[in-house]
Write a structure and sequence with these properties.
This protein is mainly alpha-helical. The chain is globular, with a radius of gyration of 15 Å. Strand 1 and strand 2 form a beta hairpin. The protein has one domain. The chain contains 6 helices and 2 strands. Helix 3 packs across helix 5 and helix 4 packs across helix 5. Bound molecules: zinc ion (ZN). The site of zinc ion has 8 residues, from loops.
Length: 118
């Protein structure tokens, strides 16, 4: 598997990831950084979000929206990240993902998941 080097936007630590575009070292950092991203989103998108026109929903869009949602990202932040209007995010979330995509999302987080012993 290819590995990419990243610097966490949450805690600033370096990490190795299988994903080139991973921004956080852990789901915990995703969650902790969410309020800041929401603030940024509101500041930069006071009127911008409404100006975005709906675009075609591709399989990639559907996958990314589901993945970000699995990371605990609020819909507004997902819209900002993908440069999409909220309608597109809602539409993409309403579409089912393939089994392969669901597995990819699960694998992506498998190492961050708290251990369950039951
Ligand atoms: Zn981190």
């Amino acid at each position: 598997m290819r590995q990419f080097h990243g610097v966490c936007r949450g805690c600033g630590r370096e990490f190795i990831s299988a994903k080139k575009d991973q921004r956080y070292c852990s789901q915990e950092c995703v969650r902790r950084d969410t309020p800041r991203r929401m603030r940024e989103y509101r500041e930069t998108h006071k009127e911008g979000a409404e100006n975005l026109k709906p675009r075609e929903i591709t399989q990639t869009t559907v996958y990314l929206v589901h993945k970000y949602a699995a990371e605990g990202m609020p819909a507004g932040v997902i819209a900002q990240t993908l440069d999409r209007c909220m309608d597109d995010v809602g539409k993409a979330l309403a579409q089912p993902i393939t089994r392969g995509q669901a597995e990819a999302i699960r694998e992506y987080f498998v190492r961050y998941r708290p251990r369950k012993d039951k």
